[in-house]
Design goal:
Blueprint (H helix, E strand, L loop, with lengths): L6 H16 L8 H19 L7 H24 L4 H12 L4 H18 L4 H23 L6 H12 L27 H10 L8
Length: about 210
């Protein structure tokens, strides 16, 4: 089932992430924290990918959760870098509407070329953008394997809804510190929403 993702949908989800970050962080790039956050989520994805066989519904939920988390982190990193929202929207509009992995690569390549041409970036920022784009293509590979690439934006929205239930600190945290180390008593994980997405697209674990 192919879903056409509109630019309006992309704008809404990017703004959700940006607003979440703006409520918690100063808009300053920290390479140390960005690297730490992305590696943390990539680690969770690795665990979900290699956590056992046969692949159960819970394994798939873990993979989709980690894919949504890595994407959320990447958008947040681009916000901290002060990359224009229109450029971020274009990246994800092309990515979400890609028909195959080659088009995913093309979307990321075009984004990297644009930021290199129009932004003054440190080597650390350039390397982070390369890592981020590589992760987005990896996410696309995994989603295509599970026949859920068409649900990429739905998964990201589920993460946004869940993250919005985390406590908002009374003061913005320093740019090199992680917000919401304690998620708060009102936190609701995205598990049920991700399961609903899987059911919508008739995806389940092996032998289930």
């Amino acid at each position: 089932m192919k879903q056409i993702v509109t630019l309006e949908q992309v704008t809404k989800v990017v703004l959700k992430v940006n607003n979440w970050c703006d409520a918690r962080y100063k808009q300053e790039y920290s390479h140390t924290l960005s690297k730490k956050l992305l590696e943390e989520e990539r680690g969770e994805l690795f665990v979900a990918l290699y956590s056992g066989y046969p692949v159960t519904t819970q394994h798939v939920i873990g993979r989709l959760d980690a894919i949504g988390d890595t994407t959320f982190v990447i958008i947040g990193i681009l916000w901290k870098m002060k990359i224009d929202i229109k450029d971020v929207e274009t990246l994800f509009y092309l990515l979400f509407n890609s028909r195959n992995i080659d088009e995913c690569n093309q979307a990321c390549r075009a984004f990297k070329q644009k930021v290199k041409k129009y932004y003054v970036l440190s080597r650390q920022k350039e390397s982070m953008i390369i890592c981020a784009c590589t992760q987005l293509v990896t996410n696309a590979h995994i989603l295509m394997h599970h026949y859920l690439f068409c649900a990429y934006i739905d998964i990201l929205n589920a993460i946004c809804v869940s993250n919005d239930t985390k406590d908002v600190p009374s003061e913005k945290v320093d740019s090199n510190k992680k917000a919401n180390i304690v998620k708060g008593k009102n936190y609701i994980p995205p598990t049920n929403d991700i399961l609903a997405i899987m059911q919508k697209f008739n995806v389940r674990g092996q032998n289930e």
